[in-house]
Structure formats: structure tokens, C-alpha cells
Amino acid sequence: LEVLSVITKACVDAVNIPVGVKPSAEAGFPKCVALAKLLAEAGAAWVANITAPLSVAPPKIYERGRPLWEKVNFPISPFVAVSGPADRYHCYKDTVTIALFVPEIDICAIGGIVNPEHCVEVLMMGAKTVGLSSGFLWKGRKLITDSIEFLNRFMDEQGYEKVEDLIGIGLKYVRPVDDSIDWEEDKIAAKVDKGKCIQCGVCWDAYCPVPVKGDDGFPVIDETNCQGCGMCVAICPVDAISIVRL
After folding, report:
1. Residues facing 71 on adjacent strands
2. Which of 118, 137, 171 is the last residue in one of the domains?
3. From CA 110, how far away is CA 134, in angstroms rounded?
4. PANTHER family attached here (predicted)?
């Protein structure tokens, strides 16, 4: 970190443009807080919230465990950076963490952003700019124009005058799970919109035991046992489930 501070200060002193830093892989939570503070003190204008987390290639199950990404005559499974949609929730976590604990530095949100709606989400979480590197791999360069068009349309429809009106507006809803939460007052549960539900069964076949198939073919959710975790919301293919306050 000391070397990074020296290099950042040298860059800031040498140029007349804002200097930002994109950390190496696995520089995420909670290290991102200390890193962002150091960069802010060194004069950096922005920090990228994440780079691809490290992982290993899966084994080929029909080839006695040989690695999927092995090189010719070099059968090892190295730690490699992983990108794509799976990175998005790492991106959200680190964006919110830096925005809350190091508000003096701007954030470029990177990781798993593969559609225009994701851009708006990270802006609302405190990012000032958005990197679409994963999006290019999944959607191609057209994602840039699609995202700009969506953002302009979204702002007109939702009554936002400028992009700055979006930045960080979701942070006020983020809080740790601690004694400040009144679990009785804040009781929430999942609710099914039968008008949208296609009765696919993915929610009652999932890990959560709360949703069950009703006599009419729609999911039935026991509000007493539902903790409002949101897993069924995440896996529903038609957005027919939402979390509501009871």
C-alpha cells in the first residue's frame, strides 16, 4: 500500500487530469475501504470498485479431473481472474462499501454490468461512472448506445433531470443487520402477483422451503415463516414475486 500511495501521488503531481486507480484482483471487501482511503489521501480522484475475483477452472469430470483451461502439455489449473454476470453482486457490495465509508473519492463501478438497468442500479448505489467490460463480452459494443438510450428514456419517464440526481439515492436504505432493526416492525415477506406468474414452479423447487404449489397451480407463501430473503424474487423468470412489508 505504501508503494501504491507513492505512485499515485507521483501521477497526480505529473498530470493535469483526474487520476484514478483500478485495483488488482481480489482487492475487494473489506480491503477496498483501506485502499480507497489511501488513494483519496494520495490525491486520486476516483477508484474502480472491483476487478475480476480470482477463481480456478472446474475439472473435466470425464477426464479424471484434468482442468478445463489447461494448456497443451501443461495440465495445471491456475488461479485466474473471472469476469461476467456473476461479478455483479461483488460490484454492488464494494460500490456501497466505498460510497458509505470513503465518500470523498469517486467510484467507477466495474464488474458484471451486462445490461442498461445495471448501470442505473450502481449509480443509485453511489457510483459516479460505470465500466462495461463484462458487458462487452456478453452484449458487444452496442451495449454502450443501448445504455445511453435507456438512461435518457428512464430519466424522462421517472422525472430525473440529470444523472447526478440518481447517484447514491439508494444508499439511505443500506444498513447492517444489527440491534437497530426492529424485526417485528420491519416484518417483510414475499408476495406473488398471479397476473404475472406463469406457474413454472421454479420458486417452490428452489432451496427455500416456504413457497409451495397451491391447489390452483400458483405459489402459496406462508407469511409467518417467510423471512423476506428475496431468493424467490431473484430466480423468478417473469418478475412475478416481490418483497412487501406486512
Report:
1. 74
2. 171
3. 8
4. DIHYDROPYRIMIDINE DEHYDROGENASE [NADP(+)]
